[in-house]
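README: folding subset

This subset contains proteins for which both the sequence and a predicted structure token string are available. Records are stored as plain text. Below is the entry for Small ribosomal subunit biogenesis GTPase RsgA (295 residues), shown exactly as it appears on disk.
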Amino acid sequence: MLRGRIIKGVGGFYYIDTENGLYECKARGIFRKEKITPLVGDTVEIQVIDEETKKGVIERIFDRKSELIRPSISNVDTAVIIFAAKDPDPSFSLLDRFIVLAEKENLEIIICINKIDSDDTGAFLQVKKTYESCGYPIIAISTFTGEGLGELREAIEGKTVVFSGPSGVGKSSILNALDSNLQLKTGDISKKLGRGKHTTRHAELLRLDENTTVADTPGFSSLTVNHIAEKELKDYFVEFTKYEEDCRFFTDCIHESEPGCAVKKAVENGEISLRRYDSYIQLINEIRDSTRRYK
Ligand code: GDP
Ligand code: ZN
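--- output ---
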């Protein structure tokens, strides 16, 4: 038995990265009977059938730590949410949306601001001011000057990560800068994935080094928050949580118009960013509109 990780799946074949190289495997019939589908990202045990042609069979799938849906990929630890200091300018409301989606999937979040070389409006500091107080690490980088790349590498060392962010912020450039062996063409990732379009492409894992892995997908297939329940959304604005116990209605408070809301009070006295709170209200309304429409 050989242990490895599924890095790609195409038409019933799975490609397993192991210490002895890459194997093409089918899954044992028992998985189909039990309605278990192997996922990219799974740690598996394979039986080698032919060493020459590197073929084998997946015998065992280890428990998943996590599972992203559309694209289906398991055991992702971290979302690196990438925005640019300029071209395109950072959008706070879009950033909050990415954060909510990553929080919903229970991923660790790292915020990364690329193109720091052309930050002439203090965009990075603005992002830092707002999101540092939420507890997120924020890294400034430039694929042009190399600034911050070491720090980013260190932050993702040993993890499986997705690089998320709007198109044009430099996701492919960053992957290339982290590992010249990846040879992704700039602009490729976003082009291949399209934007909000349905693509039949499957996720694939790319090895950055011994134990650091990057998924070649943005992690979230769409930026809608409509699958999140109205009452649940506040949990993904993590800086609200510590105030919630002081709300008159505790965890029942959705921090909107209830009396005695400690979160609203914290917004009023500047402890919680008004911009973040406005994002929250906007997303709550979006969720409400969508449930109304489908009733
Ligand atoms: P993606 O759509 O997120 O994959 O972005 P790309 O990697 O294709 O980059 C989009 C554009 O941003 C390209 O024209 C890159 O040359 C440019 N770019 C990437 N990194 C940097 C950077 O650090 N500084 C500046 N000024 N431009 C960058
Ligand atoms: Zn409240």
